[in-house]
Amino acid sequence: MHTVVAVKNLLVQSGASWVLWLLFALSAGSIAITVERWLYFRSKDDDVRALAAELDAHLSNGSIGAALDALRPTRSVGAIVARAGLKLAQRGSAAADKGMQSAIAAERKALEARLAYLGTLGNNAPFVGLFGTVIGVILAFEQLGQATGTAGAGAASQVASAAVMAAIAEALVATAVGIGVALPAVAAYNYLQRRIAAMLDDAETLSNLVLAYLATGEAARSFAVEPVHAVHRGAALDKPANGEAPHPEAA
Question: Where is the MotA/TolQ/ExbB proton channel domain (predicted)?
Fold first, then answer.
């Protein structure tokens, strides 16, 4: 019981104003992260169709170096992933695929940085505001108890009623502020998540283009080598064991 009284006295003394200041600070952090992520994503934007067409033209000509030069100026996620695959092109399509998957994982981690703050704030800011409201209600009933103990019956009723309504009205402000902080954070989180999904889809498009080129090149090389092996095997079967030229059969 003494613990409950001590906690009540602490909450009454602190009031709910600090909860509002906390929500304002959390909202400022949310705005800062949203602006920073928007600027970062903007630097990663690029015309993936034009980039894919240029990449396809270079790869169709078998010029990996020219393709790398075309991808080097851009900072887009797709270009970074395609470069990772082309740098491993000489080691085969499997190595290039692994390199591009690693690049996608690294880019996803960079894109999702600090987004957990927005998601957490969007889910919990209303509860922080509700906590301020609860403190305000406790303060209202504390004022009601004090007014009842110091005033007469009729005066106490009027004073208590006015005090409780004013205190509860002030307490509900904290809930409203909490909801007001949560809504922009949720909207920003969902928007940025959609941007991330779109950029990763673009990266997947370019990585599939690179893998298609490498697979086609490997198939072409295998078809070019196979007939040569077949000719050598046929010549080896026709050659006599003693190395002498075969004698024509008698008519």
Answer: 81-203
